[in-house]
Design a protein that fits this description.
Belongs to the citrate synthase family. This is citrate synthase (unknown stereospecificity). InterPro entries: Citrate_synth-like_lrg_a-sub, Citrate_synth-like_sm_a-sub, Citrate_synthase, Citrate_synthase_sf. GO terms for molecular function: citrate synthase activity. One of its GO terms (biological process) is tricarboxylic acid cycle. This protein is mainly alpha-helical. It folds into 2 domains: about 15-55, no CATH class; about 55-250, Cytochrome P450-Terp, domain 2 (Cytochrome p450-Terp, domain 2), CATH 1.10.230.10. It is built from 12 helices and 3 strands, in the order αβββααααααααααα. It has helices at about 5-10, 30-35, 40-50, 55-65, 75-85, 90-100, 110-125, 130-140, 160-170, 180-195, 205-215, 220-245, and strands at about 15-20, 25, 30. The chain has a 3-stranded antiparallel β-sheet with strand order 1-2-3. Strand 1 and strand 2 (about 25) form a beta hairpin. The longest helix is centred in the last third of the chain and has 26 residues, at about 220-245. The radius of gyration is 23 Å and the shape is globular.
Length: about 270
């Protein structure tokens, strides 16, 4: 190998994939040994974590991914995918349009929730409820949104209790520690005390517990949510392509937005 070739081959370095003619290995595993042997959830874990999960770990991760698949056309990402398809673009572009709006406000709450939980654990010193109460009080005083709690559509998000029950079962089986579930519940209780009403945990708060309990760092919460929601985006984009329609906007034909500018006027 010449020095220039060595320099070129060292330009990108990865522990994820090794490939040469006739051979593809992911994290050391030959692709032909993985095909038909592991499922897609296990493959996600392998790619992100470097090794294969236990069946119990894969089951818990899969539950979180199933829970976030879709929330209907009232969700901006889904609505955007459907509108994009009526503009005559390809399904890949419609999916990309949807994914591109999954940011801090729509799609990022899980990442924010896990970071918040972890900050509470770091300061808890054995008293999680007190640490949660202090963290919630500080966040509210600063006007900071506490991600993972409350839902604009569901009084109680039906996905969250089931996900937490699965975490409890996994903790009882020794698959996870259950500490982040304890933190999340302490945050929920602290919010209720501070607000005077219950603000239930939502799917973002619950999936953040699962991702964190399984050892995923907070920034990956958003990516994992996007993987999950992309399934719903794909389904809606394809369905819209079958229904047809051209240039469908956010409002039905004949409906108008509210204009709040100057009344009609003419130049002097």
């Amino acid at each position: 190998m010449t020095p220039d070739q060595e320099k070129a081959e060292n330009w990108w370095q990865t522990e994820i994939i090794e490939m040469e003619p006739g051979s593809i290995r992911f994290r050391g595993y030959a692709i032909q040994d993985l095909i038909g042997t592991i499922g897609f959830v296990e493959m996600i874990w392998l790619m992100l974590r470097g090794d294969l999960p236990t069946p119990a770990q894969a089951e818990l991760l899969g539950a979180a991914l199933v829970a976030g698949v879709d929330h209907g056309p009232q969700a901006p990402s889904i609505a955007i995918a459907r509108m994009a398809m009526t503009c005559g673009i390809g399904i890949n572009s419609a999916m990309a349009s949807a994914v591109n709006v999954l940011g801090d406000v729509h799609g990022g709450a899980g990442e924010q929730a896990l970071a918040f939980y972890e900050s509470i654990l770091a300061r808890a010193e054995g008293d999680i409820p007190a640490a949660a109460k202090a963290a919630v009080a500080e966040a509210l005083a600063a006007g900071t949104q506490i991600g993972g709690f409350g839902h604009r559509f569901h009084p109680i998000d039906p996905r969250a209790p089931k996900l937490l029950a699965l975490v409890d079962a996994a903790a009882a089986a020794g698959t996870v520690s259950g500490r982040l579930a304890t933190v999340a519940r302490a945050v929920e209780a602290a919010l209720e005390d501070a607000k005077g009403r219950k603000i239930p945990m939502n799917i973002d708060g619950a999936t953040a517990v699962i991702f964190g309990e399984l050892g995923f760092p907070a920034p990956l919460c958003r990516g994992l949510f996007i993987l999950s929601r992309s399934v719903g985006v794909l389904a809606h984009a394809f369905e819209q392509s079958q229904q047809g329609g051209r240039n469908k906007g956010p409002l039905p034909k004949g409906w108008r937005w509210t204009y709040t500018g100057n009344p009609q006027r003419t130049p002097e």
